[in-house]
């Protein structure tokens, strides 16, 4: 469905300091700097996949997404999506894709979403019958029958987000790009949106998701692609991603006496929750659980304990910091 | 084509609904536009009442130039000029991306998004002024009306081209709200009879920056001051419009969006 080869995007930006002298100097001469936002990316996405595209801020995710949607032209490289070149056959291509941006609304603030839907129907040239059928289906699925006739500005963030999804799906896109689709939503609203995405995916819609909410990733993505400094760091399934960092567990303990700083191989403190409560990361290939529990119980007296797989946040933190470390090493 | 007309009608309906959400703002905007557009004609009236004049032009003839100027803005502004504001804000915020995600020509989407029904208020002030100016003149001939109609279309084309140039600039000079001042400064020449300027400036204002074509040339045609040769003015208008469209599309290619 999507084939990306050696995709690269560089752009020029100017930089200056914040002092008055530098600001004044900048009026006359602006030193330009080339930024390599995306560097030689190659990957493919199959039809019906649900791919999470992750990375720290400034990693190049949004730039890649903008090239995949045809908004930006790449500096070099090739993309074929739905059999088309997004930026060259833009009109035909965007008629077959959808996009939801958590931070860029496609609704019209002062009037009800129903009016914005009608406008999109005309822009996409959706026939009346298809429009009514799709709208009814989406409104029922998202339970927004009463909502779509109220002015957008009076809707809650969750209601607005549901309407953003309707706006993006009205023309029945085959491929949908989601950029932070659950940002700022409460748990229930997030669950509704995630349920909707899963349901559309079951109908064969391919989703490419960019998010910092790792809950979205755990609940939705089958495949995770981590990008850092414009390059792919990891491209794997969620399970594969977990096992990539070794056999690690997160152990939350309440002890009788305080646990001091640990300098034992295979152990590291994730967080000190309270004086007698601590969360520890344990690499059970280096320190088997049985030995860890026995030694900790003897040393500090375990009162309560919960063992879980390492949360995806910890995995991502490790991947992001590895990227940062390699960047520092490369610059030396 | 039918799809584009349908799309245009749907967007206009939606934009009108948007304006109607704040009726008092809409009414006030229209009223202020009408008052604003009548300031220069009012000053012209005061100038003539004080005994001064534009040489070779009666009060009603001078007002006709200003009426045509206002009428042209009344047609061009709601449809085309809004794209300047759209480009100004959306390029800066990065929301111009959303227009690129629509399966329609980007230029059309920028125009549609900028459609502003408030500006139809200028048609009211233009029509009032046009009626008043004509009331003091002998009725134009059929030939004059035909020439005027064709040249009025050229006038709209010029204003559309100016919108394209200003909007296009904003892809590179992001956030330069002074483009509106540039427009006011350049087009203000068009509000006065061209013959009050030197011959060289008249040529510049007709063939280089065809500002004279916005009002002076069509009004002169309606007054029967020119023959059929005046229709040559359609050529620079067409060239200016084509250049505007080429420039806009070229500048669009430099659009870099905003950080995500």
From TrEMBL, chain A:
It comes from the Bacteria. Residues 2-254 form the ABC transporter domain. Pfam families: ABC_tran (PF00005). InterPro entries: AAA+_ATPase, ABC_transporter-like_ATP-bd, ABC_transporter_ATP-binding, P-loop_NTPase. Keywords: ATP-binding, Nucleotide-binding, Transport. GO terms for molecular function: ATP binding; ATP hydrolysis activity. This is ABC-2 type transport system ATP-binding protein.
From TrEMBL, chain B:
Keywords: Membrane, Transmembrane, Transmembrane helix. The keyword Transmembrane helix applies. Coiled coil: none annotated. Pfam families: ABC2_membrane_6 (PF06182). The chain crosses the membrane at residues 27-48, 60-81, 145-171, 204-224, 230-248. It comes from the Bacteria. This is ABC-2 type transport system permease protein.
